[in-house]
Amino acid sequence: MSDLIDDPRPGQNLPEYTVSEVSGAVKKTLEDQFGRIRVRGEVGRVFTARSGHLYYDVKDDRNVLACTTWKGQVSSLSVVPEEGLEVVVTGRMTAFGGQSKYNLNVDEVTVAGEGALMAMLEKRKKALAAEGLFDPARKKELPYLPDIIGVITSPSGAVIRDILHRLRDRFPRKVLIWPVAVQGAACAPEVARAITGFNALTPGGALPRPDLLIVARGGGSIEDLWGFNEEIVARAAAASEIPLISAVGHETDTTLIDYVSDQRAPTPTAAAEIAVPVRLELLGWVGDQQARMTRAVSQRMQTRDQRLRDLARALPRPDALLSGPTQRLDLMADRLPRALTRTVDLRRGRLVEAAASLRPSLLSRALAEQRRRFDQSATRLAPGLTRVVETKREALARRADRLSVKPIERDLASKRDRLEALTRRLSSAGQAQVKDWQSRLTALDRLRETLGYKETLKRGYAVVRGDGAVVTTQVAAQKATALEIEFADGRMTVGAAVAKPSTKAKPKPPEQGSLF
After folding, report:
1. How many domains does the structure of the chain reveal?
2. 104: which strand partners?
């Protein structure tokens, strides 16, 4: 009876749950209780899995909340979590029963306050500066007058209108516009693709590659301009082969693209002013330079002409130069016959004196003495020559064993190679000199044609001849019985007998002052 009335052991009537049931109930409770929430904290450990899913922690001074952003959600994030960044994350609470963990599935990340944005910007700036992307040595020089300008900005708004208006006022150029979003999540990837796309164009192709790029946007808050602080935009601008001007925001606004661009403009309008010079000012400068050059050449010619005249006055007359030599020639011509006569008489006297001392007997004795000495020398010459020949033969026999033709052949081959090299060099030098002479001869012939009076006739001038002489005054023309006028394409006669214009007659060069 006691067993029937005793109480059961404590907990014996509680229901039993499976592990999956408990995990599912916890997950459902979390998702129902919290729903979609916003959490503020500092980003801790960040890990990107091979699958593309993003795992990171959001923490405060006491606790840590695990967060997950799936691969398909990462591309829609306006800010990618970075360790140490203070953010506000938005998502739904969920639990993962496989590890008895709960986490926040985040689909939106924003920076918590302007101070955090500036801290992240400063961090990126230091990292890019350490890589040398801000180095002035790598910045390219802007073209003085680009033919085509590429503008990366929003197609609507006052920025593009200001740039086009300013370019039209200063120096009209061809403009290619690449429309992009200038704020929001799509800003950074679209601007980076636009810079890369312009650089990928082929120079001179159907859509030619610009000579200069302008990235422009109006002013705004740091959040509005944040797309131009993204690392992808800074790296695309640094890698651009086309010189790039950044004109983002107003003069007080500064973004990362300003540091990596080849030149920063305080406003979009200022970018257009930097891109091209003022056409009217350029034309005025060219005109001034042309006038200065004309004056300088004219003054130079006048100076040289005056110097030539001064030197001509300092030179003596030709007849004065020849008067002295002419007189000396006449004097020598008068003295020459007498000098020849005296010389012949003197030589004749010496010959007579020498002939008087020559007798046949003396010559016979001298010849006999020379013959005797020759015979004595001949008797001694044969044995001496024999001994010398034997000595030379023995010396040659001793040295013949040591003689070899190979050194001589090597020396001949070396000398032959040097001779061929010198021959080639001489031939090349001769050909080069002949070409140079031909070029100079061609240039002088062109100069002759240019300076000839025929070129002057082609500009509308003519040569007037009267009675076979060139006419330079009205009085001479009135006195002539007939006038012949030579034009660039032929001649014609005015007066007694009018002849048809002739283009085959070879004209004589006109005298100075005969062109009109």
Report:
1. 3
2. 67, 93
Domain shared by 172 and 246, yes or no: yes
273 and 155, same domain (yes or no): yes
Q: List Cα–Cα distances, 231 to 118, 376, 383, 390, 438, in angstroms.
A: 14, 118, 111, 102, 62
Q: Are residues 141 and 253 in the same domain?
A: yes
Please, what's the largest Cα pairwise distance for the chain? 201
Check whether residue 141 and residue 251 sit in a common domain.
yes
Other Cβ atoms within 10 Å of 48 Cβ, number: 14
Q: Domain of residue 103: give its range.
A: 19-111
> Does pTM surpass 0.70?
no
SS (H, E, C) 289-340: HHHHHHHHHHHHHHHHHHHHHHHHHHCCCHHHHHHHHHHHHHHHHHHHHHHH
Asked if residue 154 and residue 248 are part of one domain, the reply reads yes
Q: 78 lies in a domain?
A: yes
Neighbours of 388 (CB within 10 A): 10
Cβ proximity of 181 and 154 under 8 Å: yes
- Inside any domain, residue 319: no
Cβ atoms of residues 188 and 231 within 8 Å: no
List the CATH number of the domain containing 64: 2.40.50.140
Work out the angle at residue 193's Cα, subtended by the Cα atoms of residues 188 and 197, and round it to the nearest 5 degrees: 155
Same structural domain, 24 and 103: yes
Distance of CA 37 to the CA centre of its chain: 60
Pair (44, 80) in one structural domain: yes
Does residue 238 lie in a domain region? Answer: yes
Q: Are 178 and 150 in contact (CB under 8 A)?
A: yes
Tokens of 321: 């130069």
Q: Going by C-beta distance under 8 Å and a sequence separation of 6 or more, which residues neighbour residue 253?
A: 219, 220, 225
Q: Is residue 483 part of a domain?
A: no
Residues 185, 54 share a domain: no
**Digitized pLDDT (tens) for each residue of the chain, 516 residues in all:** 445 445 556 656 678 888 888 888 888 888 888 878 889 888 888 999 999 899 999 998 888 999 999 988 888 887 888 887 888 899 998 888 888 888 999 998 887 766 666 777 778 888 888 888 888 898 999 999 999 999 999 988 889 999 999 999 999 999 999 999 988 878 889 999 999 999 999 888 888 999 999 999 988 777 778 888 888 999 999 999 999 999 998 877 788 899 999 999 999 999 999 999 988 888 888 888 998 999 999 999 999 988 888 888 877 777 777 777 888 888 888 888 888 889 998 988 888 877 776 667 777 888 888 888 888 887 888 788 888 888 888 888 777 766 677 778 888 889 989 999 999 899 898 899 999 999 988 888 888 877 777 777 877 888 888 887 888 888 888 888 888 888 878 888 887 544 444 444 455 555 544 444
Q: CA 141 to CA 257: how far, in whole Å?
A: 17
